[in-house]
Amino acid sequence: MSLVDGALRVCTSSREVFWGATKMRLKPKEYALLQLLMENADQVLTRQWIIERMYDWREPMTEDVEAIVDIFVEHLRKKFEAFTGAPLPISSRDAGYIYGTARLPRTSSPDATRP
Question: Is the pTM of this model over 0.85?
Answer without folding.
Answer: no
